[in-house]
Amino acid sequence: MHLDHTIIPTTNEPRSAVFYSEILGLQNLGQYGSFYAVRVDSNLTLLFRQKTNFSRLHFAFNVTEQEYAEILARVKKQPDIRYGDSPSDRSNNFEYHNETETGFYFDDQDGHILEVIKSHGL
């Protein structure tokens, strides 16, 4: 079993698809039926749906060491993106480190919390 897709509420579907594809290095599928979509891998697609009122969500992406370095570099190049070492402090410009993983948190344009995790030994 695997998760096929999830719907992410957004105030701007095309903008969100571009953000996720450019920052996370994912494939932007563009208009995908009534959604805008980004392919995460062969199993999972993120579908963006226009909404005005919604709760902020948390998405954690487990990545390879190379993907981690590339994503962190892209985040650091964007002056309007702050990142941090905890979900409650996403603006201190620190990464978290523990025995099994390294990671950081940042927000998309709609306030959803994105976490990028590099597992040691992955």
Please report the number of helical segments: 2
Helix content: 10-25%
Please describe the biggest sheet, giving its number of strands, its sense, and whether it closes into a barrel: 5 strands, mixed
Q: Provide the CATH superfamily of the largest domain.
A: 2,3-Dihydroxybiphenyl 1,2-Dioxygenase, domain 1
Q: How large, in whole angstroms, is the Cα Rg?
A: 14 Å
Give the overall average pLDDT: 97
What is CATH's topology name of the largest domain? 2,3-Dihydroxybiphenyl 1,2-Dioxygenase, domain 1
Please count the beta strands (DSSP E, at least 2 residues each). 9
Order of helices and strands: EHEEEEHEEEE
Structural class: alpha+beta
Apparent shape: globular
What does this structure look like?
The chain has helices at 13-24, 65-77; strands spanning 5-10, 27-32, 35-39, 45-50, 58-63, 83-84, 96-97, 101-107, 113-119. The protein has two domains: 1-54, Signal recognition particle alu RNA binding heterodimer, srp9/1; 56-122, 2,3-Dihydroxybiphenyl 1,2-Dioxygenase, domain 1. With 122 residues, the chain is of the alpha+beta class. It has two helices and nine strands. Strands 5, 6, 7, 8 and 9 form a five-stranded mixed β-sheet that branches. It has a four-stranded mixed β-sheet with strand order 1-4-3-2, with helices on one face. The longest helix has 13 residues, at 65-77. Helices cover 20% and strands 39% of the residues.
